[in-house]
Amino acid sequence: MKLFIIFVTLAAACAAQKCRGTFFNNKYYSMEVLKEGLNRVKQMVYSKNENSVYFIYDQGGLIYSGGAGYYNLDNYQAGFFMGIRNATSFTVDDKKNRLYIGSADGLYAVTDRNLPEKFPINEPILSLYFKDDLYFTNIRRKVYKFDLDGVKMVPEMRYDFADDIVIDDDNNLFFLKDKKVFRLKLNTGSPAFEVTDFPVNVMTMDVDDKLYIATNDGIFLYNRYKYALDKISNLRNVKALAFDKRWDPVYIVFDLLVRLKNPVECYEDEDSFFKR
Ligand SMILES: *[C@@H]1O[C@H](CO)[C@@H](O)[C@H](O)[C@H]1NC(C)=O
User: Fold this and answer.
1) What is this structure's pTM?
2) Which of 134, 142, 167, 224 would give a disulfide with 146, using CB separation of 3.0 to 4.6 Å?
3) Pocket-testing residue among 56, 63, 141, ligand 1, by greatest number of atoms within 8 A of Cβ
């Protein structure tokens, strides 16, 4: 048994000599802890214009109450938005440089760093996603679209429920329901297909609208041509994940905000990575 352990350690050390760091999507990164003490983070998004992440965390107290916080990746300044009761989610409209905040009181918008402005949705919001228009789920887990015409239920989701939603540039709506991911094509009337049959903690998209899924067992990338999931990292228990403008991952694990930086391409064969 002892010999076996030594052998495994040596093998890992040899591989690490070739490629050092945290493995993520075929690259090795160095890890930078940006901030500690972020309690029970629920969700995080990235804003390209501000080069900042925005996240929902527990403000503390007897019952969970969501605070809306931010961290600027240029100047390392952190802060939070005051006066928003029980925040639940963020989404960003990069074109308008507008940030939307969902909360127990409904919807707020922050445009060009001004003070949060109340928008005309007054029911509690569970999750938000911006893709050309604003989509949200309410407390009953129903999915709606909010545009110039007002609020309309997404017809394909009339009989279904969602805890979280994301939409890609090909009109695919991915939704998280009871920790599983489903996909449906908007405006076609087609039914939803199961994407995962295992528990998922977080669903997120990068700037190229690729879908990433974080689980207790690592991170997977959705291949929309093969309808398959490829495991791209062994990072476990990631609670929130976003990508900055250089496509580098920023994530929350335990109570830490972490950035992966200085990626190195490394051609160690992938099989040995997953056997390790
Ligand atoms: C905040 O909302 C969550 C559900 O999203 C709820 O469980 C919690 O009790 C709320 N907290 C307060 C202080 O209203």
Assistant:
1) 0.89
2) 134
3) 63
Ligand 1-lining residues (CB < 6 angstroms): 63-65, 86, 88, 104
Residue 121: how many other CB atoms lie within 10 Å: 19
Report how far residue 172's alpha carbon sits from residue 157's, in angstroms, rounded to the nearest whole number.
13
Residue tagged 């507008």 (tokens):
98
Q: Could you give the CA distance from residue 252 to residue 20 in angstroms, rounded to a whole number?
A: 21
Average model confidence (pLDDT) across the chain: 90
Residue nearest to atom 11 of ligand 1 (CA): 65
Alpha carbon of 36 to ligand 1 centroid (Å): 23
Give CA 144 to chain center in angstroms: 20
| DSSP alpha helix (H) spans, the chain | 2-18, 270-275
What is the three-class DSSP state of 224? coil
Per residue in 164-196, pLDDT tens? 999 999 999 999 999 999 999 999 988 999 999
Question: Residue 219 C-alpha to ligand 1 middle, in angstroms?
Answer: 28
Confidence class for position 3, pLDDT limits 50, 70, 90: very low
| Alpha carbon distance 268, 217 (integer Å) | 21
Tell me what percent of the residues of the chain surpass a pLDDT of 90: 83
> 209-268: per-residue pLDDT in tens?
999 999 999 999 999 899 999 999 999 999 999 999 999 999 999 999 999 999 988 765
Task: Report the residue among 57, 64, 139 best suited for mutation to probe ligand 1: largest number of ligand atoms under 8 A from its CB.
Answer: 64
Query: Whose alpha carbon is nearest atom 10 of ligand 1?
Result: 65
CB 21 within 8 A of CB 248: no
Q: Give CA–CA dist 177/161, Å, rounded.
A: 6
- Output the CA–CA distances (angstroms, integers) from residue 224 to 183, 228, 241, 249, in the order listed: 10, 7, 20, 20
